[in-house]
Amino acid sequence: MDDIDEQEMRHQLIGLKEEHRDLDTAITALEALTYPDHLQIKRLKKKKLELRDKILRIEDELFPDIIA
């Protein structure tokens, strides 16, 4: 992996982590409503899990576990 690819991946990782945090905030706000939209919360949680998987894949590529 060259430096440009690594920089792009790091930039993408930052964006994904920010989106993940934003979803967490949105889910918390929806759950606090008197009559929360459970379907919407479920969709946001699913999206959040998908983002987590993408984040983990990028982190694994950027920071591989090296077994000595």
UniProtKB/TrEMBL annotation:
Pfam families: DUF465 (PF04325). Gene3D superfamilies: 6.10.280.50. This is Conserved protein. The lineage of its organism: Bacteria, Pseudomonadati, Pseudomonadota, Alphaproteobacteria, Hyphomicrobiales.
